[in-house]
Amino acid sequence: MPVMTYREALKSAMVAEMERDESVVMLGEDIGIYGGTHLITDGLFERFGPKRIIDTPIAEGGFTGAAIGMAMAGLRPIVEMMTWNFSFLAADQIIQNAAKLRYFSGGQVTVPLVIRGPNGGGVQLSAQHTHSLEGFYGHFPGLKVVSPVTPHDVKGMMLTAIRDPNPVIFLEAGALYGTKGEVPEGDFAVPFGEARVAREGRDISLIAYGRQVNMVLKIADKLAAEEGVEAEVIDLRSIRPFDEGTILESVRKTNRAVVVQEQWRYYSVASEVAALIQEQAFDHLDAPVERVSGEEVPAPYARNLEVAAFPSEQQILDAAHRALYRKV
Amino acid sequence: MSISSIDPSGTVAASEMEPELNREKLLGMYERMVQIREFEDLAGKNFAAGLVPGFVHLYAGEEAVAVGVCSHLTDADYITSTHRGHGHCIAKGVDIHGMVAELMGKSTGVCKGKGGSMHIADVDKGMLGANGIVGGGLPLACGAALTAKTLGTGAVAVCFFGDGASNQGTFHEALNLAAIWKLPVVFVCENNGYAEATPVAYHCSASDIANRAGAYEIPGVVVDGLDLFAVYEAAGEAIARARRGEGPTLLEAKTYRFYGHFQGDTITYRTEEEVLRYRDRDPIAGAKKYIKEHGLATEEELDAIDARVVADLGQAWTDAQAAPWPHPEEALTDVYVSY
Description:
- The structure holds two protein chains of two kinds.
- Chain A has twelve helices and 14 strands.
- Chain A has helices at 6-20, 44-48, 60-72, 91-98, 101-104, 134-138, 151-163, 212-227, 244-254, 269-280, 303-309, 313-323, and strands spanning 3-5, 24-29, 53-56, 76-80, 114-119, 144-146, 168-173, 180-182, 196-199, 204-208, 231-235, 238-240, 257-264, 290-294.
- In chain A, strands 3-2-4-5-7-6-12 form a seven-stranded mixed β-sheet, sandwiched between helices. In chain A, strands 9-11-10-13-14 form a five-stranded mixed β-sheet, with helices on both faces. A two-stranded antiparallel sheet of chain A has the order 1-8.
- In chain A, helix 1 runs parallel beside helix 7 (151-163), helix 3 (60-72) runs parallel beside helix 4 (91-98) and helix 9 crosses helix 10.
- Chain B has helices at 23-48, 63-70, 86-91, 96-104, 138-151, 169-180, 200-203, 228-243, 272-279, 283-293, 299-322; strands spanning 78-80, 157-162, 185-191, 194-195, 198-199, 220-224, 249-254.
- Chain B has a five-stranded parallel β-sheet with strand order 1-2-3-7-6, with helices on both faces. A two-stranded antiparallel sheet of chain B has the order 4-5.
- In chain B, helix 6 links the parallel strand 2 (157-162) and strand 3 (185-191).
């Protein structure tokens, strides 16, 4: 199977859909002539021309709103948010228009729109340029929210996102653009609403999404090698719609769960997962559900401070030990 | 267009791109204005009577703007609208019975009772939706115009908004986008003098909002929004310009709302004398006077139009009151397109 980077896989999905469907267009800051700040759209301006690869001014509310209007009138825009941190400037358009137009028009309006860009921290961009927005956008009915972590899934889920007739918030693992993985050739749309079992196990469920999945997989290997504990790792990857079944099936098997996320704990995805487990798998639990989250501070700058503010391997291991009632 | 520029036969020599404003079209425009007025008067009364929940923001007094602009548009053209959107909907041809039912929240409403007064949409009529967020519709209109330009449909988008919206970031972002992309869009600012309760002289740095067009190097035009013919002519030029691919125009219509910001507004920010001064310049009375003076219709013919509108709207309220509420299960549908 071909190996490619997260960046290449993401781009290949968008190129394939632009070749297949003329109504797909892209908008964003410096995505055209410059090739994109993160080089996701490099070469696409030359390939598809200025009518389909549209450079915008730095005006997130304006061009995101315009993309919503374009979608309402029949095109299928993909908006590049240079980073999701800038999406707060467009949040009114995303939340008040994209998410709600279909509902308040009584089903008349369709908004086939993808908004994509790098999300999350880990590259020392400090407070204003570091957010994990799964919980924030996942809160709003009317949006679909996904967070793929592997090159395979970023391609497969982008194919699904572009074909979806609803507004999709596509949260990329920005720190992982250069990571490599196997990506099948051709068309393999990965459906939304299905979590991925990234590692099978019977002793404890480790549940994460985004770049924390890779960290959790390492912990799982360590637990197996050093303690003989077989952890099951669930990559949520689809935040809304949310795959309750895979989580519950895993916890009913392992009876223990740790949920890991980079975002802040209060009102977060991990809180939702923990609540789901206690509601629907209470009798299967042998220990309280553990949450490992970002510290309740804006993202710091210095490397050691940033590391201290995000979930660490040790924190995850400690949480797993607590859930397993093993000595920490 | 001043009244004197209309020749004695009653034919308005509108801009060359537009069909002439003949008797039939003018009477149609008159009827639309009367429909809007009657719609709003009844909505106000029935809100007070408890038949309409939530907020209603009435458009009475501003009829010449919606009708003068939308008379140049077809169903293929787009409009976006505001919280004060009933007039735009009616002028764009949205079914009045469906609108009344929507105000009541009935299943027969144009949005199945899910949107209400501030969210009336009718996609088949090119009415992309009223917007309850001040300034929320400006980028959407740019996007609809960009689709029209990309696909080469020849359609234009008209964005209605108020003086208050001209201070939102979306106004400035949208004007800039429309200017750099030369979009077929017309920004129609309905300056009714107040952003809710704050007078325009306080909230806006510009003496004319149209002056703000200068910053984006697009035409900015001020027009008397109480004069149907002036609006019709200015809008005709702006829309023709957009259709020719020459880009956006900011059209500021100086107008006035006869009611408050919303029903229940205590209206402490303006005097009764001011309201009466504007009521003396009622745009419908002005159109009526012109039509009669130029022999385009008799008093009896106009009365017949008025009576027809009153009867139709009376029936719409009767029907809406008799119509069923949405089925409770409808609360959970139309969130996503299922596919």
